[in-house]
Amino acid sequence: MLESLKQNLQDSPSLRCIVIGSNDKVFSAGHDLKELTSKTGQDYHKTVFDVCSQVMLAIRNMPVPVIAEVKGVAAAAGCQLVAATDIAIASEEAMFSTPGARVGLFCSTPGIEVARAANQKTAAYMLFTGNFITANGKCF
């Protein structure tokens, strides 16, 4: 995704905004946890999270507005991505979560973007419970 964002900017000097969306029922579920096993090792895990951080910083530093168009579930790093954008437009079916708390993990990486984008109580609820919030009445 990082390279795609950079390439879009280079290929389109008249680009006015970037819209990130999905036609699936899931906007983004975040990292593929099947890839983050003890078999792949800590170096691989570090690379995955480093690239994720680079993507989020690139989104925040784009010279044009970045808009998330969310029609389904945005979880974990997917929720982080939505929170990193300048504007999030969510359908009535959109749902957001940072589910790490459900398995005993505090997801600090998405927590940074969510805490910046959502109000304090909504961010705390999401990060401490892992429960979904809907787009109805909530926004980033």
From TrEMBL:
Coiled coil: none
CDD domains recorded: crotonase-like
PANTHER family: ENOYL-COA HYDRATASE DOMAIN-CONTAINING PROTEIN 3, MITOCHONDRIAL, PTHR43602
Highest taxon, organism lineage: Eukaryota
Origin species: Leptotrombidium deliense
GO MF terms, alphabetically ordered: hydro-lyase activity
Pfam annotation, one family: ECH_1
The protein's name in its UniProt record: Enoyl-CoA hydratase domain-containing protein 3-like protein
Entry's Gene Ontology BP terms: fatty acid metabolic process
Keywords assigned: Fatty acid metabolism, Lipid metabolism, Transit peptide
GO cellular component, as recorded: mitochondrion
Gene3D superfamilies linked: 2-enoyl-CoA Hydratase, Chain A, domain 1
